[in-house]
Here is the input.
Amino acid sequence: MPLVPYRLLSGNTLLRGCRMLNMAGRPTEYELSYPVQVRRLVSTGASWRQIADYFGVAVSTIQRWVQVHPEFEAAIRATKDEADLAVEKALFQRATGYTVDSVKIFQYEGVPVEAGFQEHVPPDVNAIKLWLTNRKPREWQDRQTLSGDPSAPLVVAERMANARKRTK
Here is the structure.
């Protein structure tokens, strides 16, 4: 039984906050070391299925552990937040460009020589587009606008047919 504020209602039913948890069935083999292990898994981008496979349980068991063990839930949530921040930082750097220290290796009179330099990585247009479409969707969303008389039907099909005739 977890060491968190629960109230036993009847039989195998626990009350956690406003949630009722049915504790029927075989008890799971949850261990106190699992939050540390799940942090490692989540930091590599593991999915619910991969986490369940690692622990040798069903996905529903992982979801139950999240509900029943606050330390397990906190480990997953904190690690996902850290990973999201790292990706946001990397995307921002990619969108704005950055400078990185590099080393070039040359060979001079049969001896390898290392030369350090700073390499500038220019901004990436796709990263800029992704950043702006998510951060400022009203200004940067991909949209197509049609103009013309709203009461008249579009004559796209007729124009396409004419264009095909001209290319023959």
